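User: Quick one: structure for sequence A, then sequence B.

Assistant: Sequence A:
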Amino acid sequence: MQTKNYDIIICGGGMAGLSLVYRALKEKVWVAERILIIDKDSKDKNDRTWCFWQKEGIENEFEDVVYKRWKDFLFFSNKEEKLKLDTGSYIYKMIRSIDFYKHVLAYIRQFDQVDFVFQDIISIGNHGNKAAVKTSESVFESKYIFNSIYKKPELKPENQYFIQHFKGITIRTNQFKTDPAEMYFMDFRTTQENGTTFFYTLPFNQNEIFVEYTLFSKSLLKPEEYNSKIKIYLSEILRIDDFEIIEEEFGAIPMTDFSFERRSGNVINIGSVGGDTRASTGYTFLNTQKTISKILDSFKENNHPFFEKENISNKHKVLDATILNVLDNEIYKGDQIFTDLFNRVKAKTILAFLDGESTIPDDLKIMASLKAKYFIGPFLKVITR
C-alpha cells in the first residue's frame, strides 16, 4: 500500500476539523501547506445543531451562519415552577450543521492545496518524526495530524462516564401559543426515572419550533422511548397535537471526568476526544473554538501547534467531577440541583461558570446555593484520588 504525504492531515471532517481548516486558511496561517481532510461522510445533511451563549457584542468566527438568537431564557422545574432567568447580556445562539457545512466547505474548496478523502479510518499514530493514518484503502503521512474522531476511552475505576443523549425534532404547527422570542433553556416538566431529564425548546417563529428531549444518564434509551416522551411533552405541556415533523436529529455526548490526552507526539486531539467537552454540561462548540485559537496562535508565534494552558481549568474540572459523582449517588437529583441553582443564583453567574469564566466569588455563590451535605463526600473523593 503506497504512502501519500501531506503537511497537515485532518482526521474527522466535522465541526472541530472543518473549523480548524477554515480558520487556518482564513487567517492565512496555512498558506502553502498541503492539507488532507479524511471523513467517511460528505457532510451534506443537517444532522445536528450546536448551541452556545455569548455576551452581547461578542461575535464568534461563524456568526454568519448563526441560524437564530434568543435573549429571553426560561426555566421550568419538575414541579412546574417557571423562572424568567436573569442572563445579563448573554445571548443564546444556534447553528445548524448544514449551514455550517455549506459555508465552511464552500470556502475551503476554493483552495487547490486541500484534498478530501471519504474513507473509514483504521488507525492513527506516529511514525518516526511524522504522524500517520491508515484508512480502509490508503496510508497517509504528514508533519501533524489533527484528530477529532471520538471513541470511548478506557476508564479507570474512579472515573465517571455519563452520556448526554438527546432526540430533537423541528416541527411546523399552528398551535404554538407562547412568545417565540422566549426559549426554554431547561424544562424539567417530564418524568425523571431515567436520570436527569429535561426538554429544550427553541422557537424559530410562531409556527416552527425545535424541541429536544435530553437526558444525563449512563445508558441510552430505546428509540421509541424518546419518541413517546416527545409526543407527551408536545401534547401535555405545549398543548400541540397537530404538527408536521420537518427534521429529526439524535446525538450522544460524553460527560466524563476522564483526563483526555491532548497530544501524542505529532497527533493533536481536538473536540471531545481532546477534552473540549465540558463534563457537567456537554457543551463543546465554544471550547473547541478556543482550542483552535490556541493552536493557530502557536503556529503564528512558534511555527508549531503545541500549547500548554487548557481552556477548561483544573478548578472547573474538579467541580465538574464532583457534580458527576453527586449525580451518580442519585440522592440529590439532577433536576433538583438545577432548580436550586437557578432559584438562588443569577443565571448570568451560572452561565459564566459553565463557560469556565467564573471568578472565585462566583464559584462560592454557586456552591452556597446547593445542598452542601451531598457534595462533601464526592468532592473529597475527587481531590484525593
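Sequence B:
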Amino acid sequence: MSRVIAGLELVLAFASALFVVVGVSLFPEYQLILSLILIIYGGLLYCFPSLWPYVLVFVSVAVNLAPWTGRYVIDEFDFFIAVTCAILLLKYIRTSIEAPKTFVLPLAYVSLVLVSGFDSSWQEAFGPSYANFYFTDLNGLVVAKGPFWALMLTWLFFKQLKLSKGSAFSHLQYAIVLGAITLFVIILWERQVIPLLISDADIWAKLNKISDFTSAYRSTGLIAGMHTGGESTDGIDVTFLPFVFTGLLFAATKTRKVITFFALGGLLYCILVGFTRITYAASATSLIVCLLVYIFAKQREMGEVRFGVQHFIQQYWKLILSIFFMMVGTFGAYKLAGYYAVFAGGGVVFSFLLVNSLFFAEKVKRNILLFLVSLFYLGIVFDSYADSQWVQFNDNNTIALIVSSLFMLVASLHCFMNIKAPGLVKLPTKTLSLSFGYMLAAFVLVTAVGSARISIRAETTSQDYLGRLEHWTSVINSGEWSLNNTLFGQGAGSFPRNYAFSFPERINEIGYADFSGGKLGFKSGADLMIGQRIEGMSVGLYQLTLRYQGLENVNANVAICRRNLMIFERWAVDCNGEKVRLTGSSNGSTVTVNIENTKKESYLNLPSILTISSNQKDTFFSVNEVSLKKITGDEMILNGNFEQGMDHWYFYYNFEHLAWHIKNLYVSQFYQFGIFGCFLFFALYFLAIKNIESSGNNNLIKVALSGVLMGYLVLGTFGDPLDSARAATWFFIAMFTCQLNIKNGNNQERKDIEKDFTDY
C-alpha cells in the first residue's frame, strides 16, 4: 500500500510542477518575476519545509494580480500552492505514514466536488477568457480548486505533524498571526489611513480617520473575488481569528503576547470595517467557543471531575455578571461620551488592578485611591459629554450617563477588589494585559453594536432577511431538479450560469459583458463597470479614444478613478470622468475625449483605473478598441483591442451581489452537490467535532479548530465564503486536519507539542 501511495505522490508532484510551468508560461504578465520568485521559493522550501504556511498565508491575503492580469480562474495563488505540493511531495516521498481511515471522507467529498464541476473546457483555464467566466463551466474549477488544494496541503501537513511532533501546527498558527497583521496593514491602506498617518496632519485627524465607522464603504482587502461582493474576505477573517486568539492564549513570552495581541486587535479592526452583521456574529461565536474550550480543557487537565457549561456558569457566574455590567456601562457611556469613555474605562481597569495589588492590605489607602480613580473617570466622561457636538446636553442624558458610569465602576470594583498582588515583577504585564484586553473588547463591542454604519444596517435587518428568503427561493428555482440532480446537485460553480439562464431579466437589469470576436460586448445595466488598472499614471491630460458600434444611441461614462475592488460610498472618490454620447452606428464609429488625472501616482494611494460604464438600461453596444494616451503619445492601455479577451480587463459590481452568490452555505452545498454532497459535508463536520473532543490533551489544537468550525456554522447562515478558493482553502485545511484525529500518547509528548507551539 505504501508503494501505491508513493507512486501516486510522485505523479501528483510532477503534475503540480507541470501545472506551474504551463500556467506561468501562459500568464499574460509578470512571467519573469513570477518564475524567479517561484524558483527561489521552491529552493528555500526544500531546505526549510516549515516555510510554506508563511508564504501561502501571505500570498492569499496580500498578492492578487487578477485586477491587473484579468486572470481569475487560475492565478498566482494556485502557482504557489502547486510549487508547495511538488516540492514537499518529492521531499517526503520516502516518508511512509498510514493514512487514518477517517481521511476517506475528505477524499470522497473532494472527489464529488471535482466530478460534479468537471468539464472539458477546464483545459482553457490557462488562457484568456473570452466570456464572463461566471457563466461558463470554468466557474466550477474556481469552486473546486479550494477543497482540492486543501486536501493535498492537509496530507503534507499531516506528514509534517508526524515528523515534527506538533511544531508544524505552531508554524501554521504563527503564519496566520503574521497574516492577520499583513491584512490589517492592507485594510489601513485600502481605507487610506496610511497616507494620513505619515502626513503632517494632527494626531486627532489621524485618530478620527482610523476610528471612522460611519463610512458606507465595506473593506475588501486585496481578494479579487470581492469584485462581485460575497464573503471571501469574511471567510478568511473567521478562519484566521481562532488561530490568532489561540496564539494569545498559549503564547509563552511577553514578545509573543504583544505581537499576537496586536494581530488580534488588527484582525478585529478588519472585521469591524467590513460592516457585515453575520461576520460580527460568527466572530463573536468563534471567540466564545475558543474561550470555553480553553477553560474546559484546563479544567480537565487539572483533574476536575466536573466540567462543562453548567459547571462553568456555577463557578464563574459572578465574574460573568460583573463583566456584563461593565460592558453595559461602557456602552451606555460611549453613546453619550464617545470613545473617551472606552479609553477611560481601560484606565479604570488598570488603576483598580494596580491599587488593589499594591494596597490590598491597607484598606484605607486603597479605598481613597479607588475613589480618586472613580472621580477621574467621571471627570473624563462628563467633560467629553459636555463638549460633544452630537449629543444633546439635558437632564435625561445626564442621568443616563451617571447610571452608566456607576454600572461600569461598581462592576469593575466587584471584578478586581479581591485580586491579590501577583508580584511586583509580573504586575506591569498583568495589569497592562488586562487593561488593553478590556479596552479592545469594549472598543469592538461599542463599534460593532453602536457605530453609525452598523446601526443603519441593523435598521434594515428585517427587510434584508426577507430579501434573502426571496433570493434563496430564486436560487432553488434556477436549478433543474431531476432525481440525479437532487442526489448529486447541479454541479460545482453552476449557480451564476443557471441563475442567468433562469432570470435573464435580472441580468439585463444589472448589466453584463462578453469578450469575444475581438470586441467587448457591453449590455449596459445599473451596476456593471469594466475597468483596467493603469500603471505609471502622472498628473496631466490624457486622451481617451473609443471605437465602438451599435444600433442605439447610448450614454456612456468613462473615468480615471482611484479605487480598489468596490467603490467608496456610492459616489466616486478621486474620479475624473466624462459622459460620452455614443450615437448609433452599425458600421462602427469613434469618439475621443480628454480626461485629466489630478492625483500623483503613489503606492500609498489606491491604484488608478480606467472605467467604462453605462447605466442606461436595455441598451447594447460593442467596444472594438480602447486607447488612452498621454499628451506625449505614449499608450497606457494593454489589450485595448480585446484580441486576448479579458486579459488585463476586469469587471466590477459594486452593489448587485445576489446574481453571483447563493449567500447561504447550506443552500449552496445542497444546490451544488445535492443530498449526497450535504451528507458528506455534514459528516465531515460531525466527525471533525468528534475528533476534536477525543484528541487527548492537544488543548491548543482543540481551541483553534473548534473556533473555526463553529464560526463557519454561523457565517454560513447568511453567506457562502466557500465559493472563493482563497477562503475555502484555509477552511478546508482546518476541516480536513480535524479528520486526522491527532492524539498524544503520553503527557510528556503533549508538553513537547505545547512547547513547540509557543516557541515559534
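The radius of gyration is 28 Å. Residues 105 and 572 are 48 Å apart (CA to CA).

User: Thanks, that's what I needed.
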